[in-house]
Amino acid sequence: MRLLIVEDDAPLRDALRQGLEEAGFAVDASADGEEGLWYARSNEYDVIVLDLMLPHIDGLTILKRLRSEGNAAPILILTAKDTVADRVRGLDFGADDYLVKPFAFAELLARVRAMVRRGYNSKDPVIRVDDLEINTAGRTVRRGDQAIDLSAREYALLEFLAIRTGHVVSRSEIWEHIYDFRSDPESNVVDVYIGHLRRKIEHPGQPKLIHTRRGQGYVLGQRD
User: Fold this and answer.
1) Domain locations in the chain?
2) What does the alpha-carbon distance between residue 143 and residue 157 come to, in Å, rounded to a whole number?
3) I need a labelling partner for 121 at 20 to 30 A (CA). Which of 128, 145, 164, 165 fits?
4) Sheet with strand 2-6: strands edge to edge
């Protein structure tokens, strides 16, 4: 999943970026409101993590502009303002959730994952596709009674396919939501990771779960 962090505190921004990337997210980060607004307008994000106190353009202004433009990306506000009025104002302007600084990274990660699930109309943290089980909270995968060990990127790809089970997902959608801009979208990185996944979750005698739709992309769960 692709996230945007707009936070002017460099140590916090870097820590969030590192932690979220280690959790399998593709992350863009900005230190000021003007650049952050440009990022939000230019790309499709699964979640935007937005600080309120920003240089050039403050977080509430960014929030209001995005919502007035029809941008429905889930937004998690980070704020040092621990008053009811501030929280109410952020939610009234269209924020989906908020965290008051200081906060535990584990809580932020849990909230981000919950927002992603809601964005894809998936309330249950466990996604089941035939005998494949993806626990999005614990980031574990099983097929039948066998645990499957996946890298962070392999897991991110499988989860993205799983929350859209039965729908064709194009290579460009996968690249935009999972892989960062340091990768070349014209490369075969998506096909390579699809191959890794197939070798790990599909074994002789088991039904195939990842199917290629030529010229369209991939679909999880439908049988050819």
Assistant:
1) 2-119, 126-220
2) 16
3) 145
4) 26-30, 2-6, 47-51, 75-79, 97-100
